[in-house]
Amino acid sequence: MPKGYLCMVLHAHLPFVRHPEHEFSLEEKWLFEGITETYLPLIKELGQLITEGVDFRLTISLSPTLVSMLGDEFLQERYINHLEKLIDLAEKEIRRTEFDPTFNPLARMYLDQFRESYYLFKEKYGKNILRAFKEFQETGHVELITCGATHGYFPFLGLHREAIYAQAVAAIDLHTRTFGKAPRGFWIPECAYNPGDEEILKDLGIKYFFTETHGITYATPRPKYGVYTPILCPSEIAVFGRDPESTKQVWSRTEGYPGDYYYRDFYRDIGYDLDFNYVKPYIHPDGIRIHTGLKYYRITGKTDDKEPYQPEIAREKAAEHAGNFMFNREKQIEWLSGLVGPPPLIVAPYDAELFGHWWYEGPSWIGLLLRKMAFDQDMVKTITPSEYLELNHPLQVSTPSASSWGNKGYHEVWLNGTNDWTYRHLHKAAERMIELANCYPRAEGYQKKALNQAARELLLAQASDWQFIMNAGTMVEYAVNRFKDHISRFTKLYDDIKGQKIDPNWVDRLHSADNIFPHLDYRIFRSFKETTLVEKPELQRVQQ
């Protein structure tokens, strides 16, 4: 019998990016890099663990925007083209480094990886890797949960409660249709909790969500066991808090594992290092140097002087760090078990893209850790949130504190001088969408199609990614243009619907371009004053 439990959570999210109007889209590469460097390596590791009979549990949050892109046939074909170019580049690199004993093995390593990715993506999973996650769910090793429909920042959408409701309903509906099972858990985007939001999630059948550490430690009343057991909101939905110690060991730039000098350096890429004419076919068509994914150096140190990457040593380091992480969790549980009444729980949530994309060895580290947890000790067992709740230990009733896992723990990343101008447009658009949903409860034909598209454009405008990018100062023009495009499209749809001058051809073009949530029902934005939650047909459908 274990003394305590470890709940690892990977939150996988990318903004909805799909540009059929362009031959090449730099922003679509976010998805392609995510598939090649994070999602496929994780799928490979988890599949191998299951084949080996390793008893493990992992929780994965798949955002609806990511789910939509992974299931999109147009993007699937573009990814195949992207992967074929990577294979071509790796083959070219093998020829270039033929007589170089240092870099030729690395070029061969990448070629093997890209070919394996091609096999997994195209042959094994028929271009739809969502099938892999569904299989992991069905074996019981992985619990899949959802997130806000477009990763909207709930505290700043809450001026209209209907906006949060719509974000949740659209997400749960897509998740249920995709994976054949309604999610029990919900990842509030950016862990941005605002008291009262959980009541909407509870009414939609959600059993638990997550907060940053101080969301629990500053809860009212103060939880007796801190973040080491979940608490129960007065609305009877459970809340799991992030453990700071396990977070620091992985996330910290200075103390975390990914910064080890033997791990692969993310920033040194042949797209920048090699002759321009040589890499030109594999970079931006406008001649802008970009990452190709072929990186030959290790972190080495804080200077620009880098040593060649050595995969064997890096894997040894990953095994060492997996053992260290397990050792620390054992000691942590041993100490906590003397203080906490119920079996203590360590909740360790991370951005999925950290593993593989930023930290190349990350997926291997996860596989090594889960093997060690299963075979090398018996004090700590991996568990999912649902399984922990099924242990039926009494939970303290408490209301979490407002919080997020953004910089400084609150909301300033998403509301500051770089992005505050967006909210007046979002609030007005939400007000207008609620008006449309109330005015046209039984729309048909192109009126209904236009209303559904208006809801779609509003959801896309609500994505917190746009404010995040504006704050970060990179790709700002793209984020600003995307936000303005969706708001402009929504506004024209609103005017056309109200003025009874809908242009069917334009609506069709919009629907083809912004095709997320194909089953979206605009009535999810109906005013709470018009109908109660229980009376909403879409809520009844989700709960069935």
Automatic annotation (TrEMBL):
It comes from the Bacteria. Keywords: Carbohydrate metabolism. The active site is at residues 190, 351. GO terms for molecular function: 1,4-alpha-glucan branching enzyme activity. Residues 425-525 form the 1,4-alpha-glucan branching enzyme C-terminal domain. CDD domains: GH57N_AmyC_like (cd10792). The keyword RNA-binding does not apply. Gene3D superfamilies: Families 57/38 glycoside transferase, middle domain, Glycoside hydrolase 38, N terminal domain. PANTHER family: 1,4-ALPHA-GLUCAN BRANCHING ENZYME RV3031-RELATED, 1,4-ALPHA-GLUCAN BRANCHING ENZYME TK1436. This is DUF1957 domain-containing protein.
